Amino acid sequence: MKANITRDVCQRNTPCTLRTGGVYAAVVRRWARAIGVLCAGALLASCREGVLDPRGPVGHAERVILFDATAIMLAVVVPVIILTLAFAWWFRAGNRRATYRPDWEYSGTIELIVWAIPALVILFLGGIAWIGSHELDPPKPLASATSPLEVEVVSLDWRWLFIYPQERIATVNYLVVPTGVPVHFRLTSTSVMNSFFIPQLGSQIYAMAGMTTQLNLQADQAGTYPGVSAQFSGPGFSDMRFTLVADSGEKFASWVADAHTSGGVLDSATFAQLVQPTRGDGHLTYGTLADDPFDMIAHGHMATQWSPKEAL
Predict the structure, then answer these.
(1) Which tens digits make up the pLDDT trace of 175-210?
(2) CA distance 136 to 130
(3) C-alpha separations of 145 from 141, 142, 148, 180 in Å
(4) φ, ψ (nearest 5 deg) of residue 57
(5) What are the beta bridge partners of residue 213?
(6) How many whole angstroms separate alpha carbon 242 and alpha carbon 36?
(7) Interaxial angle between packed helices 57-90 and 108-135, expressed in degrees from 0 to 180 and rounded to the nearest 10
(8) Burial of 71 by CB count in 10 Å (0-12 exposed, 13-18 middle, 19+ buried)?
(9) Cα(234)–Cα(310) distance, rounded to whole angstroms?
């Protein structure tokens, strides 16, 4: 009984600052847990519709390279962090078992370890980059039993023109491709340099005026994949987005037939309007190609003429 009375008295006489400190600590722990949950959710959400959620062979290969490079670097970073904490704890002022050697200056073993590990990391990362850059070279055709779909890409200010030279149709700010079929892109630009990127399919590549770049991609699963311009190119850069729709071969053929019947005509006059700076424009479909402007643009025979005032 005496012990219980003493404990109650001590609790009633506990200073207010100690009790307040306990409340603050509980609040801090609660906020720390909430922030941890939010950070984990943000990391998981960022994996969707991005390079960590690939939907094609190129994207899968690039994710493997990213994971391998991360694992190689973590093999060094994690031990360094652990050893830093271990050394700080062992050589603390209160540890009398730690040996103090003020005259120590060199160890061949330590020098070998310190230089060998970074050399191995560079060797491994360089090997991954070397092999990956050759295996995933953008102009390199993808291994497939089917012939690739040809698509010509023209970077406008500030939208994307997609031309199907074999199907004789064109679209603006969206394109449709069949699943399981390689797509061979030829890219150019009417004015400034732009960057063509579909994160879930992989391989960002530049579109530049007066020249042609090539890219081979493939969508293995049906779906809608966002594409972006990854290169700042002027006031309308933030709206320069497009959509890739991957569907079965039958639905792709049906879409082509519908485009021929319901789309407009892409001729010189229509293209002259498309070249004008436009921001945040919607999707357009052209079911007939009077002229294919791609080669004329790629060879530098069509220059964009607009004033800074028109660009706004």
Answers:
(1) 999 999 999 999 998 888 899 999 999 888 999 888
(2) 10
(3) 12, 10, 9, 10
(4) -65, -35
(5) 187
(6) 34
(7) 170
(8) exposed
(9) 12
The span from the CA of 141 to the CA of 182, in Å, is 8
Res 288 pLDDT > 50: yes
- Cα–Cα distance for residue pair 56/136, rounded to 1 Å: 12
Residue in the structure block whose two tokens are 């950070």: 39
For the chain, the straight-line distance linking the first and the last C-alpha, in angstroms and rounded, comes to: 84
SS3 140: coil
Which pair of structure tokens corresponds to residue 228? Answer: 């972006």
pTM greater than the 0.85 cutoff: no
Residues with Cβ within 8 Å of 226's Cβ and at least 6 positions away in sequence, in order, are: 49, 198, 199, 200, 241, 242, 243, 244
Nearest C-alpha neighbor of 62 from the set 131, 152, 156: 131
Strands 213-217 and 223-229: unpaired
For residue 97 the two structure tokens come to 């078992």
Q: What number is the average pLDDT over the span 54-75?
A: 89
